[in-house]
Amino acid sequence: MSRFLYKYMPLRVDFFNEPMIRATPAKSLNDPFEGLFNDRQLQDVNRNNDEYFESLGHNIYRLDERELYEVSGIIEDDLDDLGILSFTEDYTNPLMWAHYSDEHKGMVVEFDCTKAFFSDSLLENDGRDSRFGKVYLGDTYEFPEKVMYRREMPDFSRAEVTNPKHKDDNHWNEFTRTILFTKANEWIYEKEHRSIVRLSDADVIICDKDDSLAKICARDPLIKVDELSSGKMKITFPRAYEMLEEMGDESLKQEIYIHCSISGLSAIHLFRINPQAISGVYFGCKSKPDAAMKALCANPDMKELKNINKMQVNSYLYQLDPKKYPPQTWSN
Asked: For residue 188, which phi and psi values (nearest 5 degrees)?
């Protein structure tokens, strides 16, 4: 895996005050094939899993067509609750700058993948600091993984593709992973890596103002609710909130997420980023980054960051080149 990955985004001054990244719902991405699977794929996975666990001596309950259809609905519901954080191996792609960084007026943030990505990474997962730890259901992938690109949708007819890597793993893990990390060949220029999280684990939710939601939040005084000038409300959870079991907070956090979902409150889900994982910033060639730089320098967790650049248009090639951002433009 690449040590450094990059995130294209608009130029947001508040990112440098408190680094946070939005997780986009899996079904709301710009690719209509995200999270899509068909009946044949489902039938192949189910058959292979039955044969696998039968070979281990387990008694198998074979699903009929109606029950398999119900499983399909459960998987779709689970995918609806997942959010995707997209990264790339390349910070110089002009198309990516145009599409995802406000037509070159935005920025690219570089992350060092040897560091814990999320704030409050107090758990351990395969020897790495982790926010969420090992997830049995295999529906979330905290550490970025590379996306596979294909012409045809994934083929699950072969047992070795779908069988669990370990007999104690959830038997739908490999299916879920493949669906989440496979895209059409046309997207290969993005060189995407992605982290997949539960939207209900977000540290901050920004959504339409709702009195009923405000009352739910008021049940815990540690949850901060702000009314924004845009008519939205901002819900901020304390750090490591889901780990404070004595508060019974996980169920309340889930209740807040579900209320936003079923009420159609157009929620944005933000996750706090570990500032130490940020190893560089590249401002777009059309950007005006002075305000962002002042915020960066005022943040004690980021002021030592030295790898700061502004992209330049190459005079001879159709390419963008990084150039160190002159400190005199923002340090006074």
From this structure: -65, -25
Give the predicted TM-score (pTM) of the model. 0.91
> Phi and psi dihedrals of 118, rounded to 5?
-90, 150
Q: Does the pLDDT value for residue 248 go beyond 50?
A: no
Reported as type and span, the H/E element at residue 234 is strand 232-236
In this predicted structure, the answer to whether residue 332 has a pLDDT above a threshold of 50 is: no
What crossing angle do the helices spanning 39-55 and 173-180 adopt, rounded to 10°? Answer: 150
3-state secondary structure of 291: helix
Residue 109: beta bridge partners?
Answer: 7, 281
Q: How far apart are CA 284 and CA 110, in angstroms?
A: 13
Residues 6+ apart with CB under 8 A from 318: 94
| Adjacent-strand bridge partners of 6 | 88, 110
**pLDDT tens, residue by residue, 163-179:** 877 777 777 888 989 99
For 310, the token pair is 């502004």
Of 5-14, 54-63, 134-143, 267-276, least confident by mean pLDDT is 134-143
C-alpha 82: how far from chain center: 8
Predicted pLDDT of residue 127: 87
User: Tens digit of pLDDT for each residue in 131-150?
Assistant: 988 876 667 899 999 999 99
Distance from C-alpha of 320 to C-alpha of 8, rounded to nearest angstrom = 14
Strand partners, 5: 111
Where does 59-118 have alpha helices with state H?
65-80, 94-100
3-state SS, residue 308: strand
Average pLDDT, the chain: 90
Pair of tokens at residue 118: 């999320």
Residue 140: name the closest of 189, 179, 169, 177 by CA: 177
Residues 164, 174: contact at Cβ < 8 Å?
yes
The residues facing 23 across adjacent strands are 269
Q: CA-to-CA distance for 123 and 108, rounded, in angstroms?
A: 28
State both tokens at 321: 């080149």
- Express each pLDDT in 287-321 by its tens digit: 999 999 999 999 999 888 999 999 999 999 999 99
